[in-house]
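This part of the workshop introduces the protein records we will be handling. A record pairs a protein's sequence with a compact description of its fold. As an example, a complete record with its sequence and its structure tokens follows.

_____
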Amino acid sequence: MEVTNEKSAMLSNYEVLNLLNDIQKGHNKQKKMHTNLATVSYEIVQYLEKTACAKQSPEVIANFMKALEPFKLTKAEKLQLLNLCPKAAVEIQLIVEESEERLTEDQIYQLLDIVSEQLPGAEEQVEMEAEENTNEEN
């Protein structure tokens, strides 16, 4: 994947994770990185490595985008589906603008099936989020 116009690009979590990992690998070659930037980069990488994007690849993303073609979604909606890996119909309704007019109930459940089948780690992410919520309550 190549960014043609840096100011108008939308990046997936997978692309951000790869970019930050590349920056951190090159960090030793540079002089001293700003402490705040290094901290933010570290925190983002730690978070993203626990999400489904850590198990994605360019092939997985390409297959996922191809599977979404029949739904006539915008680029931003596709990106949100990729990044958020929705598990419930209400999440799809929040992601897809005017979903009541644009999608049938069957199509919403088809989207959920595509997310669970095409994106590796989506199920594990649900378990991790549930575990974090339990820990926060205690």
